[in-house]
Amino acid sequence: MKLGIIGSGMIVHDFLTTADQVANMTVTAIFSTKRSENIARELAKKYNIKRTYTDNEELMADSEIDTVYVAVPNFLHYEIAKAALEHDKNVICEKPFVQSTTQAKELKKLADEKGLIIVEAITNLYLENFKQIQKELNKIAPIHIVNLNYTQYSSRYDAFLEGKIAPVFDPKKDGGALMDLNIYNIHLVSALFGLPDQVQYYANMQKGVDTSGILHLSYPDKQASLTASKDSYVTPRSFIEGEKGSIYFDGSTGTLDNFTVEMRNEQPKRYNLNKYPHRMAAEFNTFAQMIDQHDTQKADEAFVNTLETMQILTKAKNSMI
Question: CA 198, 204, 205, 211: dihedral to nearest 10 degrees?
């Protein structure tokens, strides 16, 4: 996989620290706005990236690039991903994928017509710990209660309170706790349990944006409460509770560093199976293999979860109170 990166923000800095852990991938070029050109050049020098661009059309026209990583603010995902597909590039698009199910279906249709791969970069679903959690569910079933919590006091929250609104806190740019953090919880629940019957989002609003909130998902046989907060501090703990036992873990639902299975009348068993120290390495190794092998079946399977997540997100935004 020969990768071109669109963006030079925090997620790109984070990704580049682990790019050398991704097999069969070369980061060929990076795009940034002219305002951030010096940042892109510094990244290119530090990580031996051949070229920098300040025109994303030029990057997409680069014949050495076969895949574009869309790592820009949420509201720009759709137009940039579409442009990349139109330039016959595979696409890895940061979460949340796009702003609506209509946009998601349009991009997938275009990718399929062109014989290209498009996937959403969502770290937790590609971690070994997540795959083991899937296997452990039957042991604790039937499951009745799910509580997932991703609380992370935002590094931009203090500036937000002072009136400096970054994209992650700008509702016009698809910011907020639901889109930025609860997206991880939604992906997990969707991948584990599918679509709920009812969706209701209870948000704490400041300056017109949800800085924290609780998303309630109702299933015929279980209730799920998904908490996300950018305005609070806690070490979060998440639970999946069944009649025979429970699964729980501390910390970010985006990293799933470890988890514990506790059966009734048995000693808890702790798992830590993640292969890589960085949360993004597993997903990008999967994407590189998927693209190199042109594995459309895996791409289709991943898109099912993306689309279900988009459906839940849409209902959540429409139900916000």
Answer: -100
